[in-house]
Amino acid sequence: MQESDTYLLDRAGTVLHGRYRVTELIGAGGMGSVWLAEQLVLKQIVVVKFHEPWSHAEAPERALARFVREAKLLASVRHRNVTELYEAGTTRSGEPFLIMERLRGHALSWRMRDGRPMPLGESLGIAIEIAKGLEAVHAAGIHHHDVKPENIFLHHDEDDEVVPKLLDFGLAGARWLAPIIDAHHTVGTPGYMAPEQAYGLDGIDHRVDLYALGVTLYEMLSGALPALGRTNDELVQHTISADPIPLTDHRPDLAGPVAETIHALLARDPARRPADARALRHALEDLRDE
Question: What is the CATH number for 111?
Answer without folding.
Answer: 1.10.510.10
